[in-house]
Write a structure and sequence with these properties.
Blueprint: H1 2-15, H2 25-32, H3 38-71
């Protein structure tokens, strides 16, 4: 029952995330001087896209460990 509660809380926290800015200070300074901000938005989306994969990899490994331990 405890694991079900932790799972539910984790899902709720993931679904209630807020929009974040993922640019370093130098990238932000260069991209803010540009008109329109389309490049800044593209760079920010690319950084967020690249940040997802390590978390997905760790989640997959965690799930595999969980399944192997549950079988025993």
């Amino acid at each position: 029952m405890k694991y079900k509660w932790v799972f539910i809380v984790t899902i709720l926290l993931l679904l209630s995330s807020i929009s974040t800015e993922a640019q370093c200070a130098m990238c932000r300074a260069v991209l803010e001087s540009e008109e329109g901000g389309k490049a800044a938005k593209g760079i920010n989306n690319g950084i967020m896209y690249l940040m997802i994969f390590p978390y997905l990899l760790m989640a997959g490994i965690g799930y595999a460990i969980y399944k192997s331990r549950k079988k025993k």
